[in-house]
Amino acid sequence: MTNIDHLRGGQPLNTARTVNHTKTATTNTPSTTTIEPQHDAVSLSSQGKAVGQIHQQLAAETSFDAAKVAEIKQAIANGSYTIDADKLANNIIKFEDELNDL
Q1: Helices in 1-102 by DSSP H: which ranges?
Q2: Which residues belong to any copy of the Anti-sigma-28 factor FlgM C-terminal domain (predicted)?
Q3: pTM of the entire structure?
């Protein structure tokens, strides 16, 4: 497979734009004028901006209930934490069903 750099022979690529103008019909002396490069611009719709704001809000919030985590840690530490096997199994099945819907 041919490398694209090989096609231009390692020479730098000239990106300046030039325009050729003729001064008169009898003398075809071209003059070169450099045109400023164009810049791309992006604008977001109001919906796009709203999604960005929601994303920023969600990123700033914690993704878990710190009070509940502290409560569970305390229950584990003092030995009072119990696991409901039926509830755990039902939640695992529910989670698997949600994954199948994706």
Answers
A1: 4-7, 46-60, 66-78, 85-100
A2: 40-93
A3: 0.35
Give SS3 for 94: helix
Structural tokens at position 42: 């992006």
Query: Which pLDDT tens digits describe the chain residue by residue (102 residues)?
Result: 555 655 555 556 666 666 665 555 555 556 667 788 888 888 889 998 999 999 999 888 888 899 999 999 999 999 999 999 999 999 999 999 999 987
CA distances from 32 to 20, 68, 84 (A): 6, 73, 82
The gap between the terminal CA atoms of the chain, to the nearest Å, is: 40
Q: How many whole angstroms separate alpha carbon 24 and alpha carbon 21?
A: 9
Could you give the CA distance from residue 4 to residue 6 in angstroms, rounded to a whole number?
Answer: 5
Closest CA to 81 of 89, 69, 73: 73
